[in-house]
Amino acid sequence: MKDLNNQKICCQKETKKKGPFIGLLYGILPHTFCIAFIVFTALGATAATTFLKPLLLNRYFFYILIGLSIFFATISAIIYLKKNAILSFQGIKRKWKYLSILYGTTILVNLLFFMVIFPYLANLNRGQPATFIEATSLSSITLKVEIPCPGHASLISNELKKIDGVEDVKFSFPNLFDVKYNPSKTSKKKLLSLEVFNIYRTTIIKETTSSFQKEKISP
Q1: 145 located within any domain
Q2: Residues 145 and 212 in one domain
Q3: Averaged over 145-168, what is the pLDDT?
Q4: CA distances to 73, 91, 103, 107, 179 from 70, in Å
Q5: Where residue 154 sits, what CATH number does that domain have?
Q6: Which of 26, 48, 72, 132 ranks highest by number of CB atoms within 10 Å?
Q7: Per-residue pLDDT tens for 127-152?
Q8: Are residues 171 and 150 in the same domain?
Q9: Which of 217, 115, 131 is nearest to 180 (CA)?
Q10: Which pLDDT score is estimated for 67?
């Protein structure tokens, strides 16, 4: 009898431990493509980023990822309940703590990616700080880009950095990009003509010219 009770207690402890782990796994798994895009960008693997780029150009891509993570968590919950022969409304009520941990961890991981990790990674490979003389010779422009979520920030930053003359790109949550560029090598018109801005519309919030250092605030 004691052995049966001990076995039940061990099983309960095991499921409680598995809940957060599985939620963490299903929260991370759908974002594998995004993580790969950022890693390949950092490594300079152009072919790989070109292959993954169309996914990020899909406006609904990250919503699909969130849906997938919830879907995977739901499949896991169904398997768990069925395995314990309690796949019913009563079973859900009985195991609400486990299910709350499972779904709560999944949602928390998604929020962590969108609010913290992706914004951080978008600024990971910024240019070296410019000296005062270099800074005064650069123009800057702040763009508000209509990206669906911060997960697309790395794509925008990466496309801007490909332009010869762009010295630095700083992303600010939720959708602002501060771009510093050398006006002798490139221009505002060239920045705004990027293909990515045909999909994600951009608005100029502020710009500073290198010659007079004037600030133009958008109405």
Answers
A1: yes
A2: yes
A3: 89
A4: 5, 19, 7, 8, 36
A5: 3.30.70.100
A6: 26
A7: 565 554 455 688 999 999 999 888 88
A8: yes
A9: 131
A10: 85
Contact yes or no for 176/146 (Cβ under 8 A): no
- Interval 51-70: pLDDT, tens: 667 777 888 877 888 888 88
- The tokens for 68 are 């997938």
Domain that holds residue 148: 132-217
pLDDT at position 201: 92
Q: Which residue has the tokens 């486990």?
A: 98
Q: Is 108 contained in some domain?
A: yes
Closest by CA to 150, choosing from 26, 31, 27, is 31
Query: Does the pLDDT at position 205 exceed 70?
Result: yes
Please check whether residue 207 is in contact with residue 189, taking contact to mean a CB–CB distance below 8 angstroms: no
Q: How far apart are CA 193 and CA 187, in angstroms?
A: 10
Q: Collapsing DSSP states into helix, strand and coil, what is residue 143? A: strand
Domain count of the fold of the chain: 2
Number of neighbours of residue 97 by Cβ within 10 angstroms: 12
Residue 31 lies inside a defined structural domain of this protein: yes
Is residue 97 located within the same domain as residue 192?
Answer: no
Q: What is the mean pLDDT of the chain?
A: 76
Burial of 80 (0-12, 13-18, 19+ CB in 10 A): buried
Q: Which amino acid is at 175?
A: N
Residues 89 and 171 in one domain: no
